[in-house]
């Protein structure tokens, strides 16, 4: 399935939030849906789910108008909304029934998910007795009930320790199978990079980049390399490179050199004669955080 957002506009009173937003998501390729607070992500999701109406533009799936009621959507909002004083299994069944599942199917799905997240023994407890991390596991289970067609996750790893984060990462990857559309929003870039294949970065109501993560990394890397000198101050080494005609910056305890218009072989010869011993050298590979900083400003 191909989900396309085309030239979306939305204003609240006189404040324009979406300003011609366009991007696409493909099934089997989880999309990193990123942007700073206020970029328009939540508004976009609410339009997709038909919670609010857009002012202009369209959303299509495989070229036809998208209607939320025709699809099973599993949504984990950033603002959690389950009931603290209600039996966990009962409310999972309730949420599944709201999505159109019959009670037996709902109960089976809820119990399977509670088993997967290690909370089967708590199904008759109230949500309020669980730790923040375990409550988050119940919230994620709610979003994944009944094998949804479209999965939307907003900050799913909030409040989770590394072990539970890894458990839920594997669960999300499993559920976001080849035929699922997945939009994944988080500021924990390490998990985003492990889960997602494509990326859309929003800034001020428009999409700044929408491509595969690999392509965006390759474009951002350009013709850059990194150098870590042995027992030499990085600023001092950067100055040495500057005198040799190479532009460089210091990033994450290494010197990043832009070789645009230059030959890598010549650079290697030059640094071998420069004096300081090179401890490590390699092709520069930007992280997802680097991509976010470039496009989400």
Short structural summary:
The chain is of the alpha/beta class and 297 residues long. It has helices at 41-48, 88-98, 103-116, 132-144, 162-175, 189-195, 213-221, 234-243, 264-273, 288-295; strands at 2-12, 15-26, 31-35, 56-61, 64-65, 73-76, 150-154, 181-185, 198-203, 206-212, 224-229, 247-250, 255-258, 278-283.
Describe this protein's structure.
This protein has 297 residues and is α/β, with parallel strands linked by helices. It folds into two domains: 2-212, P-loop containing nucleotide triphosphate hydrolases (Rossmann fold), CATH 3.40.50; 222-295, Alpha-Beta Plaits (2-Layer Sandwich). The protein has ten helices and 14 strands. It has helices spanning 41-48, 88-98, 103-116, 132-144, 162-175, 189-195, 213-221, 234-243, 264-273, 288-295, and strands at residues 2-12, 15-26, 31-35, 56-61, 64-65, 73-76, 150-154, 181-185, 198-203, 206-212, 224-229, 247-250, 255-258, 278-283. It has a six-stranded mixed sheet. A four-stranded antiparallel sheet has the order 2-1-4-5, with helices on one face. A hairpin with a 2-residue loop joins strand 1 (2-12) and strand 2. Helix 2 (88-98) crosses helix 3 (103-116) and helix 4 (132-144) packs parallel to helix 5 (162-175). The two termini are 31 Å apart. The model has no long low-confidence stretch (mean pLDDT 91).
What integer is the average pLDDT? 91
Strand order of the largest sheet: 6-7-8-3-9-10
Overall CATH architecture of the largest domain: 3-Layer(aba) Sandwich
What is the H level of CATH, i.e. the homologous superfamily of the largest domain? P-loop containing nucleotide triphosphate hydrolases
Q: Which class do the helix and strand fractions yield?
A: alpha/beta
Total beta strands: 14
Largest sheet: 6 strands, mixed
Looking at CATH, which topology of the largest domain would you report?
A: Rossmann fold
Overall 3D geometry?
elongated
What low-confidence regions span 5 or more consecutive residues with pLDDT below 50? none
Count up the helices: 10
Specify the helix fraction band.
25-40%
Summarize the helix and strand pattern as letters: EEEHEEEHHHEHEHEEHEHEEHEH
Give the class-level CATH name of the largest domain.
Answer: Alpha Beta
The rounded distance between the terminal residues' Cα atoms is 31 Å
Number of structurally distinct domains:
2
Oligomeric state of this protein: single chain
Strand content: 25-35%
């Amino acid at each position: 399935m191909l989900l396309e957002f085309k030239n979306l506009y939305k204003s609240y009173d006189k404040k324009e939030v979406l300003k011609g937003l366009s991007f696409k998501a493909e099934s089997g390729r989880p999309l990193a849906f990123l942007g700073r607070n206020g970029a328009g992500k939540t508004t976009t999701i609410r339009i997709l789910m038909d919670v609010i109406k857009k002012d202009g533009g369209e959303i299509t799936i495989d070229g036809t108008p998208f209607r939320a009621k025709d699809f099973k959507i599993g949504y984990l909002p950033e603002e959690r909304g389950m009931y603290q004083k209600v039996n966990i299994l009962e409310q999972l069944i309730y949420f599944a029934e709201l999505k159109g599942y019959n009670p037996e199917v709902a109960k089976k799905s809820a119990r399977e998910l509670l088993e997967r997240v290690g909370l089967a023994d708590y199904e008759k407890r109230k949500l309020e007795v669980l730790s923040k991390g375990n409550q988050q596991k119940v919230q994620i289970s709610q979003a994944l009930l009944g094998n949804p067609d479209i999965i939307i996750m907003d900050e799913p790893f909030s409040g989770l320790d590394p072990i539970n984060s890894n458990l839920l990462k594997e669960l999300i990857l499993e559920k976001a199978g080849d035929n699922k559309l997945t939009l994944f929003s988080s500021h924990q870039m390490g998990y985003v990079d492990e889960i997602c294949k494509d990326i859309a970065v929003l800034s001020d109501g428009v999409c700044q980049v929408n491509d595969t993560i690999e392509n965006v990394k390759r474009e951002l890397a350009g013709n850059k390399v990194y150098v870590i000198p042995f027992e030499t101050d990085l600023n001092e080494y950067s100055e040495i490179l500057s005198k040799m005609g190479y532009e460089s910056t210091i990033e994450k305890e290494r010197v990043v050199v832009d070789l645009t218009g230059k030959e890598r072989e010549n650079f290697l010869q030059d640094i071998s004669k420069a004096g300081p011993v090179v401890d490590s050298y390699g092709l520069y590979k930007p992280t997802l955080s680097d991509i976010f900083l470039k496009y989400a400003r």
